[in-house]
Every structure is written in structure tokens, then in C-alpha cells.
Amino acid sequence: MEYVRNAFGVKVSPDDREMLAPKENECITAVAEFVQLVNPSKSLLVDVGAYHGKWSLPLSVEFDKVVAIEPVKDNAKVLRAYARANRFRNVSVITVALGDREGKAKIRVNGAWSAISDDGEEVRMTTLDRVLEKYNAEEYELVVVKIDTEGYEYKILEGAEKAVSSDNVVFVIEHHEYWAGNEPTTHTDIARKLVFADRLPFAICDVHWAYVPKKFGRQAFEVFLGRHLFYVKMVRNLRRGLPWYFGIPHDWWHGCSIMDFVFAVRDIVREGKIKEYELDKAYVDSLYEFLNLEVGV
Question: Which of 5, 32, 41, 168 is the most exposed place for a label (fewest CB within 10 A)?
């Protein structure tokens, strides 16, 4: 098979548009930077809804072990071929769906957008807790679970009570509704469940959020802070045809480009100005607690 390299240097088919597209690259890079900063003695990535390995393959160089979960057989076949072509020997591919129970499920096959449905291809279903138990997740200092299952994310969390209560598991979740520009639906329930489980939530790009145990909070704030506080607001402004800085105090952004501003946010926080900014209620309490008690701004 002929291969080309994507933005991360991973060999993929020249016809694989999803693997070559820049979409999500910022999120993948942010997670890589976070893992490097934590520098765990042993690390595990579980990629739920892996497709052809958009996340699994480039991140395999950052983790000791990668478990890629892809229920669609044809997608899993391509992922295994890519792993072999790139000699990523730490990547295991499991052809199974995850949910809130053991048993069978049906999946509507639609490439990267395949989803659990009332009809379609029958697949075996298990839970995230079972997968983590099989791969001895408790032995890893850091476990990152990325979930992108086209709206089925909350059901997977219902089958992951042990993982949710663990202090070594970081969740990176795609909030599916935002691709269509819709208002939050499952995002609200997911955020509530994971924040109540003592995690700090970070918006790392337009649709992906990281939910990080507080013991990794310092590293998460350093990597995700600019994205967390302002990315969603800036994107919403642009979608509405407004300037990206609309609603942000003038003396914070005057003379900045949008990227200059994102990189300057850390200094804004250190100066204590963050307390003047009105944040979404969904995560403001945990954010303030961490800033005041741990960072000391």
C-alpha cells in the first residue's frame, strides 16, 4: 500500500481524508504536551471510538501502552494496518463497543461517524471499567481515556463508575452537539458527573473537553489554561459574526492578535484579573477553588 505522512508524521493512505485533515490536531497536541509535563513513570491511553487512529497513532509515542477501541470491523482493520506500517508495537486494537452494560449492540456504520443505533451491524458491547481492569489500569500513574462516540459518551461513563472515581484517570471527551452548533445537551450531564467526581474541566478546543483529577491540576492549567478560559467564548463570537474579543475587557486584548492573546492569558491570571471575568457556572466553583488554594493568584 502507498502511504503519505500526516501532520504528525504518521503514515496513512493518501485517500484517508479524515486522517490527513487538520481537524482535532490542536487537541491531540495539547494532550501530548500535558503528558510530557506530567512525565508519568507509566502511562496508558484508551482511545474509545478510535476510527483509523487519528488520536491513537500520534499519541502512541507519548504513552507506554495504547488501547484503541473501534467497534466497526473495517475501521479496526485499517487501524491495525497503520499501526504495523508505522511500527507502533505498543498499540492494541479491540473490536468492541463500549456502553453501560455487557452484551450486544447495533451500530450504524458511517465511516468516522459510525454510531450506536436501533439498527445496523451487530457488535459485542462491554464497559470501560472491564477494559481498564483487563489492562491493569491501576498500575499506571496516568491513564487518559479519550471518548468520541457520536453522542453515546454519557452511556459509556455510566459503565465506568470505577474509572470515574479513580484519581489517575483523565477523561478527554468530544461533546458531539457542538459540531452542529447546537446548545449543550449531554455536555451538561457529563460535566456535572465528572466535576462532582473531583475533576477540573478544561475546554481544549471547540468540541473537546478534558476532565482532569486535581492531582494533575498544575500541569493541566499550564497546558490548557488559555484554551479553557476563552476558547469557547472566542469561537462563539466568531460564529455570530462578532469580533473574537467581544465581551473581553479592552485592556486585556488591545493590540493583540487572537493567538497573542491566548498565549498571554497565563500572565493575566497571575496578575489576579481572572476574578473580574464572568465564567460559565458549570465549572466556576472548581476553577476558583483551584486558583485560590493551589496556584495562589
Answer: 41
Q: Phi, psi at residue 240, to the nearest 5°?
A: -90, 5
Start-to-end CA distance of the chain, whole Å, equals 54
Can you tell me whether residue 121 is helix, strand or coil?
strand
Encode pLDDT of 124-145 as tens digits.
999 999 999 999 999 999 999 9
Going from the C-alpha of 136 to that of each of 67, 123, 131, 133, the distances in angstroms are 12, 24, 9, 5
Residue 214: its pLDDT value, please?
87
Total domains present in the chain: 2
Cβ contacts of 133 within 8 Å, gap of 6 or more: 162
pLDDT mean over 62-69: 98
Measure the CA–CA gap between 46 and 65, rounded to whole angstroms.
9
- Prediction pTM value: 0.78
Judge if 109 and 251 occupy the same domain.
no
